[in-house]
Design goal:
alpha/beta; Peroxisomal Thiolase, Chain A, domain 1; 11 helices; about 25% strand
Length: about 325
């Protein structure tokens, strides 16, 4: 049976750097307050008229294709993860397909909406298609524009300071090499807590999809029960990493690197302590980019690879937790 491997990575972050001090000019916050609660120092915001969810994903994909020495025409399937697509419908996957010039080939594009775990879910989907032999080259993309949908008032501060914009991509290929590639993926969800981290309006079950009242009541902005999310994440993150390790007969000490979803530096540090890993074995770059949800793992994995922290033969674990609640992990032999 063929196994899926990550053949190449790519990423794109907008040029507009927004520091904590910049946000302090718009709401009641400070650099010290934001860093203490999240570890974030800055993030990137998209440029209207230049950046879209689809073309940021396409820019990340082009970098991955160049690194893989591939032409876009070799891609057979697209998996696109985002929580904020360019349009209500169609999904951004077909827009990415068009950006890459693959529409004439009618390459299929699948959109997934599992928020912060979107890239992990995407990897797992691509892995299954490759294992069955249906596809040999699959493009997985996570791309997000958060800044256009955040509440830049004092009421929205706690959520708004956390998020940034960006995109990441991975090309998955079939390999027959024993013991290399994605060893296993593990996906979970618990809808009991869905409204604790969500954007509740506009809504398909309201009498009207969108009303002036929804806007006036600030219902169109993200809501989060921060303490509850933190508690749940600190429980599920290490559990799903251990699930991956136990499935493959391994221990935390076997890991060369963990690349977690970049939700909060405090969460990453708590997970590291639970797993008893040294600092150098958990990669974080939330300090520079904030939480880019579906894009955060591929952006971080790119940066870790560029720094030489991901090498052939290394055992890498990717893990995410987010809205839904959803969580998951992927164990990879690079």
């Amino acid at each position: 049976m063929p196994r899926a491997k990550i053949a190449a990575l790519g990423y794109y972050v907008p040029e507009n750097v927004v520091t904590n001090d910049d946000l302090a000019q718009r709401m009641d916050t400070s650099d010290a307050w934001i860093q203490e609660r999240s570890g974030i120092k800055m993030r990137r915001y998209f440029t209207p008229g230049k950046d879209t969810v689809a073309n940021m994903g396409a820019n990340a994909a082009r970098m991955a294709l160049e690194r893989a020495g591939m032409d876009a025409s070799e891609i057979e399937f697209i998996v696109f993860a985002t929580l904020n697509p360019d349009y209500m419908f169609p999904g951004s996957g077909v827009l990415l397909q068009r950006e890459l010039g693959l529409n004439a080939q009618a390459i299929p594009a699948l959109d997934i909406r599992t928020q912060c775990t979107g890239f992990i879910y995407g990897l797992s989907i691509a892995d299954q298609f490759i294992k069955t032999g249906m596809y040999k080259n699959v493009l997985v993309v996570g791309s997000e524009i958060h800044s256009s949908g955040l509440d830049f008032s004092d009421e929205g501060r706690d959520v708004t300071v956390l998020f940034g914009d960006g995109a990441g991509a991975a090309i998955l290929q079939a390999t027959e090499e024993e013991g290399r590639g994605i060893l296993s993926t593990h996906l979970h969800a618990d809808g009991e807590h869905a409204e604790r981290l969500a954007v509740l309006k506009p809504s398909g079950h309201e009498p009207r999809h969108i009303t002036h009242e929804m806007i006036d009541d600030r219902g169109i902005y993200p809501v989060m029960n921060g303490r509850y999310v933190f508690k749940f994440a600190v429980e599920k993150f290490p559990a799903v990493i251990m699930e991956a390790l136990k499935t493959n007969g391994m221990e935390p000490s076997d890991l060369d690197l963990v690349v977690p979803h970049q939700a909060n530096l405090r969460i990453s540090e708590a997970v590291r302590h639970v797993l008893q890993l040294p600092e150098e074995k958990v990669f974080n770059n939330i300090q520079k980019y904030g939480n880019t949800t579906a894009a955060s793992i591929p952006i971080a994995l790119n940066e870790a690879w560029e720094k030489g922290l991901v090498k052939d033969g290394d055992l890498i674990c990717l893990a995410a937790f987010g809205s839904g609640f959803t969580w998951g992990s992927a164990l990879i032999r690079w």
